[in-house]
Write a sequence for this structure.
């Protein structure tokens, strides 16, 4: 199968018939074998009923319905599990992503050899103050921390090799950082394509200001997990040792001062309390790293590594 098109959605009943018809036109024009997997993330409108109706006229359309709203990451993760195409395309269901971009996104994977290609909505029709400016700040922080040179991490229009989506797990709110997840899984050829951003035709946006706050928190989380998830002692142990050493130096200084002058009062000095606090913090950090190592070593996934190839072994 050439393509799997994965579309998470929430309350998009108005746009679904037009979107499916547009996708079908593009698929037929390019003679692709394909499937469209729509994941209904607990919609409260008639989205699922419309998906069932559309499937009656197009057997390539498939659907997954969540019993409640779990979020975009959960929807994408289930879609990735179900996808069977050689190339997987993700797009939003609100008609702001153009299916006409699909052939070029597929070409960049199949012919140009990219592991993943992310869309870049260079010209946007969103509100400047509430969406465009926060988005620019968020993307700048993501570029700096991840080292991935993308302008638009959060663009829903992306293409992937099948191997990429089968090698990553999207959870929480990590759909914003799929390029980072792909990089940590060893897929480093990540490209970018300028794509059309269309003005919203139906409904209203499902995301508010809280997504940017959550986005920055998730950025810290995924950076830490990616670097230290399997070796927490390297982080906590390092900073714990540094703090403890600083406190120890202060303590030695106070002891030397006391030995040189027995009238020197240790407990009346701010340095004493600084040394005490820093040594306690250092000990706690070190213990956190030690406990993290114990948890990691006893985890069911402690040796779950992604192996690209094997020779002479099954």
């Amino acid at each position: 199968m050439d393509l799997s098109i994965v579309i998470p959605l929430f309350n998009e009943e108005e746009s679904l018939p037009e979107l499916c018809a547009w996708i079908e036109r593009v698929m037929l024009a390019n003679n692709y074998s394909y499937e469209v997997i729509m994941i209904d993330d607990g919609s409260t409108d008639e989205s699922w009923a419309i998906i069932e109706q559309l499937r009656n006229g197009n057997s390539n359309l498939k659907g997954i319905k969540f019993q409640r709203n779990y979020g975009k990451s959960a929807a994408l993760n289930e879609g990735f599990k179900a996808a069977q195409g050689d190339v997987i395309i993700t797009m939003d269901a609100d008609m702001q992503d153009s299916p006409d971009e699909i052939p070029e996104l597929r070409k960049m994977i199949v012919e140009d050899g990219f592991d993943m290609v992310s869309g870049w909505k260079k010209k946007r029709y969103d509100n400047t103050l509430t969406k465009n400016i926060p988005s620019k700040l968020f993307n700048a922080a993501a570029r700096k921390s991840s080292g991935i040179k993308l302008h638009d991490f959060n663009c829903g229009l992306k293409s992937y090799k099948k191997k990429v989506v089968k090698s990553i797990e999207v959870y929480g709110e990590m759909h914003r950082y799929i390029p980072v997840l792909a990089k940590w899984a060893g897929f480093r050829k990540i490209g970018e394509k300028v794509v059309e951003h269309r003005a919203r035709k139906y409904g209203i946006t499902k995301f508010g200001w809280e997504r940017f706050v959550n986005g920055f928190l998730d950025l810290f989380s995924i950076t830490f997990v990616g670097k230290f998830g399997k070796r927490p002692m390297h982080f906590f142990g390092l900073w714990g040792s540094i703090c403890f050493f600083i406190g120890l130096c202060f303590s030695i200084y106070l002891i030397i001062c006391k030995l040189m002058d027995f009238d020197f009062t240790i407990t009346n000095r701010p340095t004493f309390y600084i040394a005490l606090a820093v040594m306690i913090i250092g000990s706690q950090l070190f213990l956190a790293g030690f406990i993290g190592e114990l948890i990691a070593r006893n985890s069911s996934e402690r040796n779950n590594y992604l192996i690209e190839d094997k020779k002479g072994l099954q």
